[in-house]
Write a structure and sequence with these properties.
By secondary structure, the protein is mainly β. Among the domains are: 137 residues, no CATH class; 74 residues, no CATH class; 56 residues, no CATH class. The protein contains three helices and 33 strands. The strands form 15 sheets. Strands 3-4-7 form a three-stranded antiparallel sheet, with no helix packed on it. A hairpin with a 2-residue loop joins strand 15 and strand 16. The protein is elongated. 32% of the residues are buried.
């Protein structure tokens, strides 16, 4: 048994009679403190204090007390708390008191409420821990389940768990991870299950209050959280679109500026029979004013800024996708193919937007093609959505660098589908005749088209010797001069450079 705190209490019934509670001192039925439901002198529950209370003040939970311990609706340091002796037991002469709930140690005898607002047994009591019942919390054990007393007469201090196997082994605000109880994660924390999160919701690997959880904007599905552009202010040709956004770790929509929907079909100002239309494009300035002034004939033009003269009448500058005669007649300041557009190639039909070919690897004659169409509302050539198409025709005429020894290497063709060149599939063009070189000290060697100086220098990347001397009149693909293998080499003064 642990040490007992014994305080004498004199004049208990006299004090009780002063506060008109003497009958409680004479109750014949002893009972453990933990069976008492509240403060005997209080008729109704007092509201919780606005701030943490000192010992002796009323409470409902441990969090309301400075000591962190609330018992019997009274704050005290530990054990059974009280304001008056009657809060401790109905029978003050034979009661059990849990004097130290942390160690589950108590006594039996005459009960008293000491000046520390704790129930104790007066001098002469006997050890008895049964007042520390199964409902008496010995320790909150941090994030693990609390340890409780067991209600027996002779108890030892209970121990807290140090490991867990499931979330059920942990407090409500914690979960089991790596066999340890740890605090539940705030919104935005990485999780694997709902029980990992403070808000009890785990989605897409993150904690949040509800819905689709996220850490950054790109975690949110564009298909669910995007909306196409709309023209929200037609008079000023201003628009917006909705994009995915991660707000408070939850996927939402965010509005961004995008004037694309304010195209030539949107009338910003009727202006009689010459309406001003929006230009089109993602970032637009306010549209021009109505056209005013006169033009044509012998009089000087007085068309206002933002207007041009057409058929002897001032017309408002045209939006993208409308016909034009020069740059000055377009709001964008760009006219091509007799149509206005913001930049690049302007168009009125798909045939004005040829595909873009890309030779990806001339050595293997492999290429790609970007198909395009005409966005007539904006008068500009736009790429078709989707991946690039396989198309090798853009490699036409490009040298492959294939090593054909003394023969020519055939360049890539204009075919759409080509195989990497090799000697076996016709990548080399054989000589029709082999020249006979004049005898000498190995000064000349036969090549397609004639004789070349003998190689006396280092090897090139294609395995041929780089000749130290060179001449003119004999050429090969990729050779700039006779006998000088390799792109970019020149023959100067009979020497390869």
């Amino acid at each position: 048994m642990g040490m007992r705190l014994q305080n004498s209490f004199h004049g208990l019934c006299l004090f009780a009679s002063i506060i008109a509670l003497a009958p409680a001192c004479e109750s014949p039925t002893p009972a453990p403190l933990t069976q008492r439901s509240g403060i005997a002198s209080a008729g109704v529950d007092a509201p919780p204090p606005a701030k943490k209370g000192f010992d002796g003040l009323g409470c409902m939970t441990d969090d309301e007390c400075e000591s962190g311990h609330c018992n019997n609706r009274v704050c005290c340091a530990k054990g059974d708390c009280c304001k008056v002796t009657e809060d401790c037991a109905l029978d003050t002469k034979d009661s059990v008191v849990c004097e130290d709930s942390a160690t589950c140690q108590g006594s039996r005898g005459t009960v008293a409420c000491n000046t520390s607002y704790r129930c104790v047994i007066s001098e002469g009591g006997t050890p008895d821990d049964s007042g520390c019942t199964k409902e008496t919390e010995a320790s909150d054990c941090g994030f693990y389940k609390s340890a409780f007393c067991n209600g027996t007469r002779d108890q030892r201090e209970p121990t807290c768990p140090t490991a867990c196997t499931t979330n059920d082994d942990c407090d409500m605000d914690a979960h089991c991870a790596g066999n340890q109880c740890i605090a539940n994660l705030p919104d935005g924390g990485a999780c694997t299950a709902d029980g990992d999160c403070m808000n009890g919701h785990c989605n897409h690997g993150f904690c949040c209050a509800k819905g689709d959880c996220c850490a950054v904007d790109t975690d949110c599905d564009p298909a669910m959280y995007s909306a196409p552009p709309s023209c929200t202010d037609m008079a000023m040709c201003q628009g917006a679109r909705m994009v995915p956004a991660c707000v408070d770790s939850m996927c939402e929509q965010r509005m961004e500026d995008d004037d694309t929907a304010c195209d030539r079909n949107v009338i910003a100002n009727a202006c009689g029979d010459l309406p001003v239309k929006c230009r089109g494009g993602a970032d637009q300035k306010p549209p021009p004013p109505c056209a005013t002034g006169t033009c044509g004939g012998f009089a000087a033009s007085t068309c206002n800024e933002g207007a041009f003269c057409w058929q002897n009448r001032c017309q408002p500058d045209q939006p993208d996708g409308e016909s034009c005669t020069n740059d000055a007649s377009c709001q964008s300041g760009h006219c091509q193919n007799n149509v206005c557009c913001s930049e690049g190639e302007c168009c009125t039909s798909d045939d004005q937007c040829p595909p873009i070919g890309m030779c990806m690897d001339a050595r293997t004659c492999q290429g790609k093609r970007q198909d395009r169409h005409c966005d007539v509302d904006h008068g500009t050539c736009a790429n078709n959505p989707g991946m690039l198409a396989d198309d090798d025709s853009s490699c036409s005429g490009r040298p492959t660098g294939l090593n054909c020894n003394l023969n020519f290497a055939r360049p890539c063709t204009a075919a759409v589908d080509q195989q990497p060149p090799s000697m076996e599939n016709g990548g080399c063009i054989p000589c029709t005749t082999t020249p006979v070189c004049p005898p000498g000290a190995g000064a000349l060697i036969p090549r397609c088209g004639g004789c070349a100086p003998n190689a006396t220098g280092p090897m090139t990347v294609d395995g041929e010797m780089i000749p130290a001397m060179c001449g003119t009149g004999i050429t090969r693909p990729n050779d700039v001069a006779v006998g000088c293998s390799g792109v970019g080499r020149t023959c100067t003064g009979g020497v390869c450079q």
